[in-house]
Amino acid sequence: ESKKRKKYKNINFFCEGIATILINFLKNIFFVKKKLSWMKNYNLYLSYFSQNKKNFISKNFNQEIFWNNILKLKNKNNLIVMIPDDNISILNKFFLSSKINSQKKNKNFYISIYNFLDINILIKSIALYLKHFWKLKKIISNNFFLKNKSPYLILMKEKFLDDIIGKNIAISILHYLIFEKIFNSINNPKKIIFLQEYQSWERILIFLSKKKFNINTFGYAHSSIRFWDLRYFNSFKDLNQNKITLKKISPDVILVNSRYQKKVIHKNSISSIKICESSRYLNYKFKKNIKLRNNSNSILVIFDGLKKQDIYLIDFLNKVYE
Question: Model pTM?
């Protein structure tokens, strides 16, 4: 690869990183600052807006697909922090921000991570990204990939660069500063419970929460875990040699829905594994007219947590047996 082409790629990654920070700031200016010093003796939950957008846009603002039944418990104060996904439209974010901004003090209080985003975080994010990019200029050179003998790293070069100098590291820097501000703005929660998918923000959340509060963190693995789900496993090298570092970014407890899931991840996890009920199906109801019209064969239908996908599956099977 020529020096000119390499320089062009580096500039492209750099521009993507800066643009990612600026776009996230501009797309979330609807959210206003909220004081949370009144929240005491509460649990902190984290969830995705994309899983709940129909409820939040409608009148059922307090309906939450994963935590709803837990949040109904009396005499419990809960702070639910919503993380708007990248694929959420600006219009939906506007609806979400208007609902959050108009909230009154309640035992279940909803907020977005972007309620803490301000011009200071924007400036710090850009400054940290510039510092990070400058430090890694030697790693992003071709020599690094030529000297490294891992064929996997060479094949995944573009993805690797995107993670360490492109838009992915830029959004991680932004999330780090936002969570840092959140923890500096709230009182000590009793527990922190989040949906565990091994997103980068989860590692940031765990690291900062242990650094600030030193309280138990619970990662809820809300979907099936298969033996090929490498995101839930740690290498034996990390488990043996980097145990202290690994503990700083791992939840104290991983909540799973079955004994099989516990068995799959038990040997390769530094966290304690506990079995709990699958919360995403507790409020799940079918309409009466959704039926499988097959009378001659016995078919086991395993549903997902999304009604749209399940209805599609039933309709497909009905067409097959017409």
Answer: 0.79
